[in-house]
Specification:
The chain has 353 residues and is α+β, with helices and mostly antiparallel strands. The protein has ten helices and eleven strands. The strands form four sheets. Strands 8-5-4-10-11 form a five-stranded mixed sheet. The protein has a two-stranded antiparallel sheet with strand order 1-2. A two-stranded antiparallel ribbon has the order 3-9.
């Protein structure tokens, strides 16, 4: 059903992949801006999505349960290796029998997964190394979590998610969703996933974490089935607990010593086999696309590859300066330059003209 729908010339798989590329490269706001402009076309009176959908921002999503993360980590640390990553995933409500309220309101079903360095060396990975751990839509740490619960929740958009959930049921095989409704479902679900990614990232950087650790965000059991790192351990904002005064025998007994307990930075060594260099299993073409995305995000940075030079129009021999200036401003020369215009973001990802 969804495979028949195209958005900006992209089929479903390409559409989801383009969003995932942006999220994994830390360009969530670019994905947000692009999706917002498309959602406006299917939102409003008589259209599949509510009128307020295009005005939704990450600030409208309330991340609940963040204050409980430290306690959960303290408990899980006592059971084995320290937790070095948490994965927050939008999951399928049908898996646990959730259904919308009579009013149509539907809370997001969110799962929190906890990982140690036994699954992947999260405590030592920057964003590039984390991204290298993804293989297609999966990852090298898939199903290697030590615990899963519902500590983290997302509130504030139950009405919008209820609409998307209802569309999802109608878009299933045998459903009666129109082409416009299927397109609205793809855009609406993807927009919520991107905003959830941004909201969780911003909460982690504002409220902090008990130790340097990775925060991964995904929608592994619900559309658009994307996953990406939101925060890497080296860049995490650590909000350490207040140090406790611990008496020390001898002359320095008056000197307070911090006791971080289970909140101390992890000294656990990952399992053997992670010492090799991170390999990028993605095809060369996709890697080049990611480099171009970095260039878009920060034009002043070195993208890691030289841009292609434009081929200038051939200038006839014995051309005077006046003739050359006239040649440049003719309608034909303008048309030639327009033909060389740099392709759009998603065209560049998929090398389309």
């Amino acid at each position: 059903m969804l495979a028949e729908i195209t958005i900006d010339g992209m089929v479903d798989e390409e559409f989801r992949h383009a969003i995932e590329v942006l999220l994994r490269e830390g360009q969530a706001e670019q994905a947000e801006t692009w999706l917002r402009s498309r959602i406006a076309m299917v939102s409003g009176p008589g259209l599949p999505l509510p009128e307020r959908f295009p005005q939704l921002t990450a600030a409208d999503l309330s991340i609940t349960g963040w204050e409980d993360i430290a306690g959960r980590l303290a408990h899980l640390d006592t059971l084995g290796a320290p937790i070095t990553a948490i994965g927050i995933d939008l999951s399928d409500p049908d898996h646990i029998g959730l259904s919308p309220e009579p009013s149509g309101l539907m809370p997001l079903h969110v799962e929190t997964h906890y990982y140690t360095d036994d699954a992947w060396p999260f405590s030592r990975c920057d964003r590039a190394s984390l991204t290298g751990g993804y293989v297609g839509s999966g990852s090298r740490w898939t199903d290697r979590f030590v615990e899963v619960d519902d500590t983290i929740g997302i509130a504030g958009i139950d009405d919008l998610y209820g609409t998307v959930f209802a569309l999802e049921h109608r878009c299933r095989p045998g459903g009666d969703a129109s082409e416009q409704e299927r397109r609205a479902y793809m855009l609406g679900a993807s927009f919520i996933a991107v905003l959830a990614h941004i909201a969780i990232r911003d909460t982690a950087m504002r409220e902090g974490l008990p130790r340097p650790m990775a925060v991964l965000v995904g929608s592994n059991e619900s559309y658009p089935f994307v996953s990406a790192p939101a925060v890497a351990a080296p860049s995490a904002f650590v909000c350490a607990p207040t140090p406790q005064t611990v008496p020390i025998p001898g002359p320095v007994a008056e000197t307070p010593a911090p006791d971080y307990g289970s909140f101390a930075p992890a000294a656990h060594q990952p399992s053997p086999g992670f010492e090799e260099a991170f390999e990028d299993p993605r095809p060369l073409e996709e890697t080049a696309a990611l480099l171009e995305l970095r260039e878009l995000a920060d034009p002043g940075a070195d993208p890691g590859m030289e841009p292609e030079a434009w081929e200038l129009p051939e200038v006839p021999s014995h051309t005077t300066g006046t003739q050359l200036r006239r040649r440049i401003v003719t309608p034909e020369s303008i048309a030639e330059l327009e033909a060389l215009e740099k392709p759009g973001l998603f065209q560049r990802i998929f090398r389309r003209k």
